[in-house]
Automatic annotation (TrEMBL):
Name under which the protein is recorded: HAD family hydrolase
Domain of life: Bacteria
Single GO term (MF): hydrolase activity
Pfam families reported in the protein's UniProt record: Hydrolase (PF00702)
Alphabetical UniProt keywords: Hydrolase
Length: 236
């Protein structure tokens, strides 16, 4: 990575889940618990695929987040059980969801230290998607909420969602930098609209957020750690 003197945004947005704190491992753990619950009906692979297909089908209705995930688990379980979902299984699925909502917030290494540096020079905001109440809960529990000028919990992260957000903030895309772990949600929509994006890979990525091609763009940067961001911005 080399410093880039032309990268001088007026505002920097950070994704939340798997950029600031752990998230996807909790969904993976929940899926394994669900597979175990439904193991008498289908193979592990079939249960996993059924749950994934149901999630994707329901995204336009429920959106992203734990609550929609729980509803998709219930729907999947009922179909797997041919409409005969027992009260015990139903209660067990609800417990999985409640356990997810009660997970402690674990900041990723270097997040707080990096934000303290960057926030001295740039307005920083959170631009994430998911359940509004849960995302605000995680931000509160993280202990870093006071560093952000604005919190945006988006329905999705496509071009229209970013356009709406920047219009409200009165920021041009040429002055906007997005930092996140998802190439599909945090990078592609932003650079396609003329903004800049920094990708910081996380060790695991939900299948729905993966892309199968390489991105090459003058406004696209990849860092191995969030702690490299101040150097990219010529702050250190």
């Amino acid at each position: 990575m080399t410093a880039n003197r032309s990268l001088i945004p007026k505002i920097i947005a950070f994704d939340a889940d798997d950029t600031l704190w752990d998230n996807e491992p909790y969904f993976e753990e929940a899926e394994q618990r669900f597979i175990t619950l439904m193991g008498d009906f289908l193979s592990k692979q079939s249960i996993s695929q059924k749950l994934y297909d149901t999630q994707i089908k329901n995204l336009p209705l429920y959106g992203y987040g734990i609550k929609g995930y729980v509803l998709s688990m219930i729907e999947s379980a009922n179909e797997i059980a041919n409409g005969y979902l027992s009260n015990e299984l139903y209660d067990s699925i609800l417990l999985i969801g409640k356990d997810m909502l009660n997970q402690p917030v674990h900041l990723l290494d270097g997040v707080e230290e990096t934000l303290l540096v960057v926030a001295k020079y740039f307005p920083v905001i959170v631009a994430t998607k998911g359940d509004l109440k849960d995302q605000h809960r995680k931000l509160h529990d993280s202990g870093i909420g006071q560093l952000f000028h604005h919190i945006e919990v988006m329905i999705d992260k496509n071009q229209l969602d970013y356009q709406k957000m920047l219009k409200r903030l009165e920021i041009d895309f040429s002055d906007f930098l997005m930092v996140g772990n998802s190439l599909k949600s945090d990078v592609l929509p932003v650079i396609e609209l003329g903004g800049s994006a920094v990708h910081i890979p996380y060790h695991t990525t939900w299948a729905h957020e993966r892309i199968n091609y390489e991105i090459k763009h003058t406004n696209f940067y990849t860092l191995q750690s969030i702690t490299d961001l101040p150097k990219l911005l010529n702050l250190i």
